[in-house]
Amino acid sequence: MSVIVSPSLLAADFMNLGKDVEMVNRSKADWIHLDIMDGVFVPNISYGLPVVSQIKKIARKPLDVHLMIVQPERYVGFGMTVQDKNAPDLLTIHLEASTHLHRTLQQIKALGMKAGVALNPHTPVSLLEDIIQDIDVVLIMSVNPGFGGQSFIEHSLEKVKKLKALIQATHSHTLIEIDGGVNFETGRELVAAGANALVAGSFVFKSEDPEATIAGLKNLKTE
Known about the structure:
Layout: E1 4-7, H1 17-26, E2 32-37, H2 49-58, E3 63-68, E4 90-94, H3 101-110, E5 114-119, E6 137-141, H4 156-169, E7 175-179, H5 184-193, E8 197-200, H6 202-205, H7 210-218
Parallel strand pairs: 1-8, 2-3, 3-4, 4-5, 5-6, 6-7, 7-8
């Protein structure tokens, strides 16, 4: 399976957000990554679910929504049902923010969405052993969440390898997604370690040719 590329709109031009979404639509990207922050779980505030709904109206790629918020279960059903054409396609919550993780994942799936779990840099993948078969996507944060443009945390490569081994040992179908410090060099290493999907924000939207950058990430091959 080829690498899944999910450009992060956190690094887009918010004054021309529709234009940047259209660029991603034209590109070889597979998903559109959206980070919702509450200023509590992470030290930043981005945008809320109403903005996500507006983006969904013009997006031609699946929405990959990442909730960086406390008590994410409060918002899982907020205007996001299987009948709602504006709902995300993949909804990811943080293990560190969800007291009843299994219950919330089931809630997400009952609403017709794929369910993801995100791990902060300090969180070991071993905590997913008892629930990995219920997770569609594990999002490994390879920077500290909250701000774009940070440097890649090298230990993330070992986390990807450990997670890949867990998935294989349990015969799960979980995808591994990485967010933070992704570029051609780190992306190549991550794919070789077992990553299936790459989130890229600043590397895409700050480049001279974002569509070409997306295509380059899409073409990454393992060694």
